[in-house]
Structures are given as structure tokens and as C-alpha cells.
């Protein structure tokens, strides 16, 4: 368990006040999630010992790494933490072999060479050991930096936006590869990212940060589909967040007036009358008005306002009595003939509607 209470003030311009309790037993991955400037990297650097908090305490298991009030500070090299920087921070004047072996340069030569060779083999770097960083691809640079971080056999691996420099296709492949490596090496990790795909693919737990404060924590699927507030919903990428008013209940469901439309959601635990209605775009299906059937409780006729390609999917903004966004495949968008002004029916289940009380 990593317990961190971190306060860091940057001359009054920005401050971080984050309290974290992270299960980091092998090979779990905890995710620090949030937009740029949320304080994620500051928290990570404080955990690594690369930044000294203004106030706070950091403990890894029974070992105290930092206690500002008590005047206790364990230097980075004594924490046995591996750090993968966002830009990889490879030494340009060292070969791949030199970079991997840098962190264990005090080890006997034979042991150092054996460990470098083993990591190179396991990370697919044997053919580029003599190359310098400038001659490597983005994926090779990342693997070289990861090998350097793993060379010291860290108790905890810290990953700062490790996929930020990679394009979409490479990112997906490297993400899958990293998941396999973390499982193989059985090293716990803390991952900083602003991409929910990273959180879902790698994370076992997740902390949402904004403006240096923790908004929500929990398993990634729960945080991303059931945000605790509108700020967390925005950060988690929930496309539709609209005010709604309870109009009635029936059979374990609640009816709500949203704009000029009425929808059905799973009965909330609270008796509030007003809610923020949250609907993720991937949970909205589109069909022609002639279609019928299915188990979805919500079927709303509306008009297409905008059609925006988003890589492998298409974002469709609708007016169904309130603004609603759907994400569909490019082929579905073509098959349905979606264009601004066309009529379409939006379909989503009551269980896909997440309600946040408006208080």
C-alpha cells in the first residue's frame, strides 16, 4: 500500500493538495488520471523523491519515504523506484546498452552485462544495443527507457504519460505490450495519463485529479461510467451532461424530464428531484425511425446537428429534445446516411443513464 498526503505550493501560482491510498501490490497498476496541468506529474515526482513536498507524508508499506513535519526525507536512490519519463530522457551520448546499464553502473561488470542482455532479450532490443537514441523508433526508445527503469529491479515503477509521443496505431500496440511486461516482471506501477483508453487497458485502480485536487477514486470502469460529479464527468469524457427533473417512478425506474424530452433511468438511491443526466456516446445507438424492437427503454426521435469523424468512430451530435451525442462506427454513419438535418432515432438503455444529484 502506498499512502501519500502531498501538499506542494508553487509560489502561490498553483498548488497541489492530494491524498492517495493506492494498492500497489504486484502486479497492480494504479492510474493518476486528469487533464494537463492537473498536478499528476507533480504527485508522481514527489513519490519518486524528485520533488520535495511543501508539506505531507509518503509511506510505502511500513517504510516512510517522506515526512516533512518530522524532518524525514529518503532520497530517490534509496526508494528503489523506477521512473519512465514522458520524453523517455535517454542519454543521447550513450548507446542503448549504455542507457540500460546506467542505473546499475556500480554493479560488477559481468553482472551488469548479464542484466542488460537479459532485459534487451525480454524487451526485444538485442538488435539495437549498439545504436544511439537518435537512431531508434518511438517504440524502441520507450522500450529502452523502460529497460533502464527496470534494470535496478525497482519495487515500484512510475510511468509518466508513456504513450504521449506515440501515434494511434503504435500506441495501441505498445500499450498491450506494456501490460504483458508489467505482468511478466510482476512489478507494481503508477501510471499518469489523460487518456481513458490507457486507464481501462492497464489500470486496476484510478484517481481523478483536477487543479491539484482529488475528485474521485475507484476502479477505472466505475469512475469512467459513474462519475461522482460534473467535473469528473467532463474529465472522464462523458459527452452528454444535461440537467433533468424527476417526474415519476415505475417498476424500479425513474422518469425524468430532460429539455423537452422524457427519458427513463434506473431508480437512483437518493430522493433528489433534480439531477445531472450523464450518457456516454458509445452507449447511444442510432437507427431509422422505422426500426423497432429491442430491450432499450429510451427511444427518442431527433435531428442530426453535426457529424464529426473521430478516427475509427464518428461523433454524431443530435437534438432529441436536448443535446445528445452518439459515437458510431464510420460504416454505420454511412449506412444510415447521417448528415446535418437528417432525422434519426437515438436508442439507449435505462442502465446507461448515470444520474448525479444537483444540490
- The CATH architecture category of the largest domain equals 3-Layer(aba) Sandwich
Question: Could you name the ranges where pLDDT drops below 50 across 5 or more consecutive residues?
Answer: none
Task: Give the DSSP E fraction (strand runs of 2 or more residues).
Answer: 35-45%
Shape: globular
The number of helices is: 10
Q: Which strand order do you get reading across the main beta sheet?
A: 7-8-9-3-10-11
Sequence-ordered SSE layout with sheet pairings:
Blueprint lengths: L1 E9 L3 E9 L6 E5 L6 H9 L6 E6 L2 E5 L4 E2 L2 H4 L1 E4 L11 H7 L6 H14 L15 H14 L4 E5 L7 H18 L3 E5 L2 H7 L2 E6 L2 E6 L1 H6 L4 H6 L4 E11 L2 E6 L2 E6 L7 E6 L5 E3 L10 E13 L2 E7 L3 E7 H6 L7 E6 L4 E5 L2
Parallel strand pairs: 3-9, 3-10, 7-8, 8-9
Antiparallel strand pairs: 1-2, 1-4, 4-5, 5-6, 10-11, 12-13, 12-15, 13-14, 15-21, 16-20, 17-18, 17-20, 18-19
Helix pairs in contact: 3-5, 4-5
How does this structure look, described?
With 359 residues, the protein is of the alpha+beta class. The chain folds into two domains: 2-232, P-loop containing nucleotide triphosphate hydrolases (Rossmann fold, 3-Layer(aba) Sandwich); 238-357, RNA polymerase II/Efflux pump adaptor protein, barrel-sandwich hybrid domain (OB fold (Dihydrolipoamide Acetyltransferase, E2P)), CATH 2.40.50.100. Helices cover 25% and strands 37% of the residues. The chain is built from ten helices and 21 strands. The chain has helices at residues 40-48, 76-79, 96-102, 109-122, 138-151, 168-185, 196-202, 220-225, 230-235, 330-335, and strands at 2-10, 14-22, 29-33, 55-60, 63-67, 72-73, 81-84, 156-160, 189-193, 205-210, 213-218, 240-250, 253-258, 261-266, 274-279, 285-287, 298-310, 313-319, 323-329, 343-348, 353-357. The strands form four sheets. It has a six-stranded mixed β-sheet, with helices on both faces. It starts with a strand and ends with a strand. The model has no long low-confidence stretch (mean pLDDT 90).
Amino acid at each position: 500500500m502506498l499512502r501519500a498526503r502531498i501538499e506542494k505550493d508553487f509560489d502561490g501560482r498553483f498548488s497541489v493538495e492530494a491524498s492517495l491510498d493506492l494498492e500497489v501490490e504486484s502486479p497492480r497498476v494504479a492510474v493518476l488520471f486528469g487533464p494537463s496541468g492537473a498536478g499528476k506529474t507533480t504527485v508522481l515526482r514527489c513519490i519518486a523523491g524528485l520533488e520535495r513536498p511543501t508539506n505531507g507524508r509518503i509511506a510505502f508499506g511500513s517504510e516512510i519515504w517522506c515526512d516533512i513535519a518530522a524532518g524525514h526525507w529518503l532520497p530517490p536512490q534509496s526508494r528503489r523506484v523506477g521512473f519512465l519519463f514522458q520524453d523517455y530522457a535517454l542519454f543521447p551520448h550513450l548507446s542503448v546498452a549504455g542507457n540500460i546499464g546506467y542505473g546499475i553502473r556500480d554493479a560488477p561488470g559481468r553482472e551488469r552485462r548479464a542484466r542488460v542482455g537479459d532485459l534487451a532479450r525480454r524487451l526485444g532490443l538485442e538488435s539495437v544495443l549498439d545504436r544511439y537514441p537518435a537512431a531508434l523508433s518511438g517504440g524502441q526508445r520507450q522500450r529502452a527507457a523502460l529497460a533502464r527503469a527496470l534494470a535496478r529491479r525497482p519495487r515500484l515503477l512510475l510511468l509518466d504519460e508513456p504513450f504521449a509521443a506515440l501515434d494511434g496505431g503504435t500506441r495501441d500496440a505498445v500499450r498491450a505490450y506494456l501490460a504483458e511486461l508489467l505482468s511478466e516482471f510482476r512489478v507494481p506501477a503508477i501510471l499518469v495519463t489523460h487518456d481513458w483508453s490507457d486507464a481501462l487497458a492497464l489500470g486496476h485502480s484510478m484517481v481523478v485529479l483536477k487543479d491539484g485536487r482529488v475528485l474521485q477514486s475507484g476502479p477505472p470502469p466505475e469512475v469512467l461510467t459513474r462519475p461522482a460529479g460534473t467535473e469528473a464527468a467532463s474529465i472522464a469524457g462523458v459527452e452528454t451532461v444535461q440537467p433533468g427533473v424527476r417526474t415519476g417512478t415505475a417498476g424500479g425506474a425513474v422518469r425524468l424530464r430532460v429539455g423537452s424530452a422524457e427519458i427513463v433511468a434506473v431508480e437512483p438511491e437518493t430522493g433528489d428531484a433534480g439531477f445531472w443526466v450523464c450518457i456516454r456516446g458509445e452507449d447511444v445507438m442510432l437507427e431509422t425511425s422505422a426500426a423497432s424492437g429491442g430491450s432499450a427503454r429510451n427511444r427518442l426521435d431527433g435531428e442530426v446537428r453535426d457529424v464529426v469523424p473521430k478516427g475509427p468512430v464518428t461523433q454524431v451530435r443530435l437534438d432529441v429534445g436536448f443535446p445528445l451525442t452518439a459515437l458510431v462506427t464510420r460504416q454505420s454513419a454511412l449506412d444510415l446516411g447521417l448528415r446535418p438535418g437528417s432525422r434519426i432515432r437515438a436508442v439507449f438503455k435505462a442502465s446507461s443513464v448515470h444520474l448525479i444529484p444537483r444540490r
